[in-house]
Amino acid sequence: MTIVIGLGIFLSLILLIEGGYFFYHQYISPHQRTMKRRLRGSAKRAEGNEKVAEQEILRKRKLSDVPWMQALLTSASNFGGLEQLLQQANSKMPLGVFFLLSGCLGMVGGLFGAYKDWGLPAALALGVATSFVPWLAVKMKRKKRFASFQRQLPEALDLMARALRAGHAFSVGMKMVGDEFPDPVGPEFARTVEEISFGIDVPEALGNLTTRVECADLKFFVTALSVQRETGGNLAEIIEAISRLIRQRYELLGRVQALSAEGKISAYILIALPFVMAGVLWTLNEEYMTLLFEDPLGHIMMGGGAFMMLLGAFVMKNMIQIKV
């Protein structure tokens, strides 16, 4: 156990030193501030070939400020979609910092379990669980961003339809959405317009948009545009019909959520009840609860209880989650 604690402290110091190095060179370094100020000034004067260079900068996302880590992360195959996950969540955190934060939290969790003398399996399990906290936070941020995109999409489509009726081109309507709307609809549509301006075909640029944003309503819109480009028709009326369909679908989804609210509250209470009771019993009689962590039979009981809770949560989620 002493060797594990010493190794954990050593790795934690290495990760903290690397994190301090990144923070200094990213936010405090005078050279970095001067470079950012010059880039902001040169971006306003960029014309001609400089626009191509700016496109190249936007395409290649920097994964880490440490050279060897940048080379390692670049050579890897997207790390199971983590880089795409960070981009979809609109996270400014480089992939190297994400791994650094996960490692630090994992070390802290493992050392806390070792300090409490819960045993090596429990300490390792706690370390692994805490290392997934940044991943869960990014997933929640991405989900919240996609929900905001879905709410803003009908208004954006209405603006595009009005622009088309006024005689503007389709790309102009998308540019108006990119200029007028906040994140996430505005920046995503603006990026699509930039791709079209740089020579990418409209179907391919819209396909890239659906890859960045996972939204069923957006896929309806892109599919309708692809069909319209092949068969023809009034594009403004098509976009207005899609906007009306999305609003009706969103209204139906709200009704479904209201009807399933009672089941969700029941699920939350049933899942939280064991943890609340464990906290109360720990406060009233700590020796009684310590047996669960010290006795091998207690480990088996906690593992069985955790498995049953996960199974029950999975069943309740499928019962109350209705897709519209």
Question: What does the secondary structure layout of this molecule look like, with pairings?
Answer:
Elements: H1 2-28, H2 30-44, H3 49-59, H4 67-75, H5 82-88, H6 95-115, H7 120-131, H8 133-165, H9 170-180, H10 185-197, H11 202-212, H12 216-231, H13 235-259, H14 261-284, H15 286-294, H16 296-320
Helix pairs in contact: 1-2, 1-6, 6-7, 8-9, 8-13, 9-10, 10-11, 11-12, 12-13, 14-15, 14-16, 15-16
Description:
The chain has 324 residues and is mainly α. The protein has 3 domains: 103 residues; 107 residues, Receptor-associated Protein (Up-down Bundle), CATH 1.20.81; 61 residues, no CATH class. The protein contains 16 helices and no strands. Helix 1 crosses helix 2, helix 9 packs antiparallel against helix 10 and helix 15 packs across helix 16. About 4% of the residues have low confidence.
Outline of the structure:
This protein is an all-alpha fold and 324 residues long.
Outline the low-pLDDT stretches. 47-59
- What is the beta-strand fraction? under 5%
**CATH C-level class of the largest domain:** Mainly Alpha
Overall shape? flat
Name the structural class: mainly alpha
Rg for CA atoms: 26 Å
Assign the CATH topology of the largest domain: Receptor-associated Protein
How many domains? 3
The separation of the N and C termini measures 52 Å
Q: Main sheet, how many strands, which sense, barrel?
A: none
The SSE order reads: HHHHHHHHHHHHHHHH
The residue-averaged pLDDT reads 81
The helicity comes to over 70%
Q: Specify the number of helices.
A: 16
CATH architectural name of the largest domain: Up-down Bundle
Number of strands: 0
